[in-house]
Amino acid sequence: MLSAPPSYSPLAGEREASWPTTAPRSHPGRRSLSRLAADVLYTIRVHSRRTYYVYIMTDPSHTALYVGITNNLKRRVYEHKHKLVEGFTSKYNAIYLVYYEETNDVREAIAREKQIKGWLRVRKVALIEANNPNWRDLSVDLLDD
User: Fold this and answer.
1) Domain segments of the chain: what residues?
2) 123 to 5, 73, 104, 115: CA distances (angstroms)
3) For the whole prediction, is pTM greater than 0.90?
4) Are 117 and 67 in contact (CB under 8 A)?
């Protein structure tokens, strides 16, 4: 964790020290303060407790499958069900949540979404049926909270 810049007591006749904006040239391996701050913020974001979801929505006859990603599954399913956002799910009436998985790593979630989207329909159906054999709408439990 970063601490405040070092300060020296004015009573001791020292002037207040300030953080350098760049690393001294004598230390080529050091990062600039802005780069260090960016690295710290990235680490905080990556290791935060934010949850990401990869999910599959379908229509009542299970003919259309939509694969998506979100950081708020409850809100996103509500948007799909109430057709608040124009797009595939509203056009094809994909209002049933039939599969989802969660992770704390956004890059992992994005990669997984791309992976599932690249699958043939038969493989997506197998994934759904392995976890939800009756194609039950999982949002019923989710939205009741």
Assistant:
1) 52-144
2) 55, 23, 25, 11
3) no
4) yes
